[in-house]
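note to self: dont lose this again. the chain is below, predicted strucutre after it. 284 aa total, dont forget to put it in the shared folder this time
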Amino acid sequence: MLRIFIFSAFTLFATLGQALSLDTTPVPGGVAVITLPADAVATTARYGEKKILVMKNKDRHIAVIGLPLATKPGRHFLTVTDRQGKTQNIGFQVEDKHYEEQHITIKDKRKVNPEKRDMERISRESKQIKSALRHWSPEEDVVIEFRKPVNGPTSSPYGLRRFFNEQPRKPHSGLDIAAPEGTPILAPAPGTVLDTGDFFFNGNTVLLDHGQGLVTLYCHMSKIGVKPGQTVNTGDNLGAVGMTGRVTGPHLHWGVSLNDARIDPLLFLPDEPDNADQNGDKTP
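---
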C-alpha cells in the first residue's frame, strides 16, 4: 500500500484503503492525487477538459489525475464543482523527470516507415484505439491496485525516448514484459473488455475498461481470449503473449491510461522485485 502526496492547502502524506504502489510526487507520466473539499460528495472534477477519477478515502473524496508525458513542470490546477454547482480550482505542483533513451533495430522496414498502402489502415486503427482510451464509465468502486498481468522481467520500461533504426519516435507509453510466446496474460483488476483487434503496430490487442477513465491495454498477443463487452475479474485469462505487430521478440506491451493520459503501469503494482512472478517465485 502506498503513501502518496495529496495536495490541498498544503502537502501531506496519506495512506489509502486502496493505494498506488509507490511513494510518488506528480511528474510527467505519473499521477497527482488531490483531496477534495469536505462537502464534495457529488463533486465533478476536471483537469483541463478531461473528467477525473474520484474515489472515497475514509471520510473524504480524492481525485486521481493521470499526467501525460508531455505535461510541463510547474503549477497546475484541478477544477472541482460541488453539489451547489460552485466551482473552485485546487493547485498542485508537477516536478520534472528525465527518461532515458532506447535505440531499437527493426528488421521490417515498413514498421518504421510505413508505405502509402499502410497509412489508411494505421489512421483507421489509431482512431479506434484512441476512442477506447478516451472511454468513460461511471463505475463507483474502481480498483487501482493491480496484479502483474504476466510473469516476466521488464524488457523496456515506461517513458523511454525511443529511436527505431536511429529515427526518433514517440516515447514508450507502456511497460514491456518479456515472456515466452504463449504465456498466459491475466487481467490485473476487474473490468469490461472495451475492444479487441489486430493492429499494424500493436498486433493482437485487448483494451479493458476499469471505470472512470481508467483503461488498460495489452499488445502483441499471439491470441486473444476475450470478446468486446465481456466482464472479467482479477486473474481471468485475456489471451497469450506473442510477437505480433512491431516487435523484436515475444513480450507483452502493457499500457495504463487514466483520463486519456498514458502513465507508468508500475505505479499501480504492489512493491515487488522486478523479476518476481505473480506467486512470488523468481524468474530465471
